[in-house]
Structure formats: C-alpha cells, structure tokens
Amino acid sequence: MYQVTVKIGIIKYNNMKQILFLTQSHKNTMIAHSEKTVPYEACGLLGGQPGHVTSVYPGRNAQKSPVRYILDPIDQLNAMKTIELRGEEFIGIFHSHPRGKAIPSTTDIAEAYYPKVIHIIIARNTRTKWSMRGYSIVKGKVEEISLQISDL
Ligand SMILES: [Zn+2]
Hints:
single chain, alpha+beta, globular, binds zinc ion
C-alpha cells in the first residue's frame, strides 16, 4: 500500500517522490516539437489536472537560441486561453536541450517563475534519441519528479 497525499497540486508518492502522469502521445508530441526546432531549444506548455497531463501546447521559442528559450507571448496567450476553455489547469512547462543533458541549467533555475508547475526537459542524447525528465523548481530548489507514462 502506498500513501498518497496531495501537496502544491502535485501527487506525492509515499511521501518521497512526486509523480506526473502523461501518455506516450504527449511524450511523442514534445519530442516531435523538439526535433523540429533543432538546433534551437523548443518550448511549450502543459495543461491538465494536478499530477496528470491532458494536453501539450507546443509554442515557438522567441529567442531562437540553442541554449535558452522564451515562449512566444502570442503562443503562450493562445495556450492559456485553450487551457481555460477546456477546463484544464496550467500544470507544466516543457523545453528541450538539443545539445545538453535533461537537467535544469542555471538559467532554467533562475528563470523558473511559476513555482507550482512542473518543468519537463527533453534532451537530445544522440542525433535521433531523446530523453525526458521532470522537475519542480521552487526558489532555486530543484527536486526531480517521476514521469510515468500511462495510457489509461
Ligand atoms: Zn533549459
């Protein structure tokens, strides 16, 4: 038996580890967007309910940079509107590291302005292989979150 409690909108697993559930299709959408945006970082938002992704909203990187991103403000606005229309919550941000590891950069930590959302980082390990990890970043404190693929 696992004890499940809810804290800051994220499920805590056995009081040890937080979990975010998403589907293979959500993961594929983020990887496809990251692939398409190489050599720049890709970014976008995640809509859903606490602990569960229900939609992925890819956006443009207004910075067009291989080492940082700023989500295009129009894309951000449109995603936020759709999230509201669908009755979802804004639960996460994803971005890619086309030539880095799936760990938050110092910029990612410094610029994590939304403490309640989960940050997913998709890193390109080889030319075609990507890996994905999730984090909560609150006031400079980084905690890894377990990403679980669930197609139920
Ligand atoms: Zn980053």
